[in-house]
Amino acid sequence: MPLTSQSRKQTWRTLPRLLRLLILTQFAFNIGFFAVLPFLAVHLGTSIGMAGWLVGFVLGLRTFSQQGLFVVGGALTDRYGVRPIVLTGCVIRIAGFVWLGFAQETMTVIGAVLLVGFAAALFSPAVESEVARQAVCWEQETGGSRTHVLALLTVAGQAGAFTGPLLGALLLTVDFRVVCLAGAGVFVIVLCGHAWLLPQHIPGRPKTRGRGGIGPLRRNRRFLAVCTAYGAYLLAYNQLYLALPDEVQRVAGSQTSLAWLFALSSLLVVCAQLPVTRWVTDRLDLRRSMAAGLLLIAAGFAVVAATQHAALGLAPAAAFVLLLTVGQMLVAPAARAWIPDLAETGRLGLYTGAMSSLSGLIVLAGSAATGTLLDLNVPPAVPWLALAAVTALPIILLPSTRPPQHQR
């Protein structure tokens, strides 16, 4: 029986122990992270009193300090290996969450947010690049699809993203500081567990010595085009924390429904990611999968724009979350599966990090612009229409994939 028709449990059992540990790592990371992040915008605007454009800038800065510096974490992973980079990132994330819980001034908030983001810039490319490398090895050994393994990574991440906001919402009834300290506590557990379980040396993983790799990367137009499309997706996803809270507040008068919309998104990925990936892998190559996903996300923005004057309550926001999530299920695994085919030998960490870094630049500029649009006296549909256009346009830049024998 081909692996594309196996159940989730059967696929999981065929994976090597290290690959399963790394996938579970993504789950744990997201519990701690999403216990805090969904409530940050409200905390900055209400408790600290930041203007809308500044909230958007700080959220974009957080994404940039994370995604934008992935290239650093990726290059360090190529040189020093997975274990030291993951453990260092966990220590920094703990410090950042504790600092954020006590920060009350704009500059101290920015410092804490930068620390929180930089931590992920270390451990995330280390985990993601090694999962991609292990997925390619598993694909070669079993004849299965690397995309299925990377879909499992997405499922684990979204399971954590589902659990995190519920934990954060529960603790928010006490205080935002308690939420931050709980997030730090999760990463303390992750740090201790990985200090014990993560191997010092991973067989078959090359270590890159010396500098280099940036020049060929900058000339790799196929890779840069994929980065642009992925950046548009990431900017769209970031609207769960910027434009969506604003829309929920406008429609419902409060943001109490926000945690449930986040939960809806995560639960959809947990339940549907693997069936969607199996269906898509049999029918679409990586380019078509990314293009279809971006079109669905753009349609989600368009739905909210078209219903601004309709008395539909939270239905348009829920439709946006649904379309964004289905689009994510197509875009994220395909982009991650594409990187090993585009990267130089021994530079997978660098290329994994660079994709997120370039995407972070797009999110930084796009989030500040979105925050400004939300603050301006423009028709409510304008920011959503602009986001729809920004999401759809990069489709025309996507390159063709490799010949069929190289596609997975």
Automatic annotation (TrEMBL):
Q: Say where the protein is mainly found.
A: membrane
Its membrane topology is listed as: Multi-pass membrane protein
Keyword Nucleotidyltransferase included in the entry's annotation: no
Domain annotation Major facilitator superfamily (MFS) profile: ranges: 18-406
Under InterPro entries, the record lists: MFS (IPR011701), MFS_dom (IPR020846), MFS_trans_sf (IPR036259), MFS_Transporters (IPR050171)
TM annotation in the entry:
21-41, 47-64, 85-102, 108-127, 148-170, 176-199, 220-238, 258-280, 292-311, 317-339, 348-369, 381-398
Q: Which PROSITE patterns match?
A: MFS (PS50850)
Cross-referenced Pfam families, in alphabetical order? MFS_1
Compartment(s) of residence: Cell membrane
The UniProt entry, under Gene3D superfamilies, shows: MFS general substrate transporter like domains
According to the UniProt entry, the coiled-coil residues are: none
Q: Provide the alphabetized UniProt keywords.
A: Cell membrane, Membrane, Transmembrane, Transmembrane helix, Transport
The record's section on PANTHER family has: MULTIDRUG RESISTANCE PROTEIN MDTH, RESISTANCE PROTEIN MDTM, PUTATIVE-RELATED-RELATED
What is this protein's record name?
A: MFS family permease
